Amino acid sequence: MARSRAAYEYTEAEDKSMRLGFLLIAAGLLSLLGLGCCWLRPALQERGGGGSANCTVLAVRQLGERFACTFSCGAACRGTARYPCLQVLVRTSRSSAPALLHEDERQLRTNPKCSYIPPCARDDQENSENVTYKQKYWKEKVGSQPFTCYFNQHLRPDDVMLKRTHDETVLLHCFLWPVVTFLVGVLIVVLTICAKSLAIRAEAITKKKHL
């Protein structure tokens, strides 16, 4: 009877495998729940209230107004600089009215009045040069060539964005790895149980042969 009980008990290695499997399952589920709240909900809102259109540049201009940005110069060093406001006005295939172009939703929320926020440098002149370079890009390289832009009715319906914040590739990677972790955990648990079951059956067959 004691031997029969011992046969059904997991060894130390099998016990560790089971714990690892359950740990991976729990980690995968928690990651999916966290990413679902943090990423899936805003992504669905973006998809539900937005869409794509073809855009053509109408005008590229710098406003006289300058905006503040914060630069970092070390672990405990921060400062404030200024950059000129660049506006790129476009015409979309969904409306004849001019719309203001933005890099993405983050840039739109940070500064809804401008189309571009340069990497903040300590020197205001360097910031101005970055903005001027972007202005030349839209004027000379893009010009009147049509390109894909995106709009979102939940934010500023009259503005458009060059790219979506929640890209399909980013969402795929965010949800792929938790699912893989969950499936690996399930596989470890199933294989450990199957191996134990086969070991018990093999032991039972061996005992029958000796009887």
What does this structure look like?
The chain is an alpha+beta fold. It is 53% helix and 27% strand. It has a five-stranded mixed β-sheet with strand order 4-1-2-3-5. A hairpin with a 2-residue loop joins β1 and β2 (77-92). 15% of the residues are buried. Residues 1-6 have low confidence and may be disordered.
Question: Would you list the SSEs in sequence order as H and E?
Answer: HHEEEHHEEH
Q: Residue share in helices?
A: 40-55%
Stretches where pLDDT is under 50 for at least 5 consecutive residues are 1-6
- As a whole number of angstroms, the C-alpha radius of gyration is 29 Å
- Provide the β-strand percentage band: 25-35%
Q: What's the overall geometry?
A: elongated
Q: How do the strands line up in the largest sheet? A: 4-1-2-3-5
Keywords:
alpha+beta, five-stranded mixed beta sheet, 5 strands, 211 residues
At a glance:
With 211 residues, the protein is of the alpha+beta class. It is 53% helix and 27% strand. It is elongated, with a radius of gyration of 29 Å.
Mind sketching the topology for me?
Blueprint: H1 2-8, H2 12-48, E1 50-74, E2 77-92, E3 95-102, H3 105-110, H4 124-142, E4 147-152, E5 159-161, H5 168-210
Parallel strand pairs: 3-5
Antiparallel strand pairs: 1-2, 1-4, 2-3
Helix pairs in contact: 2-5
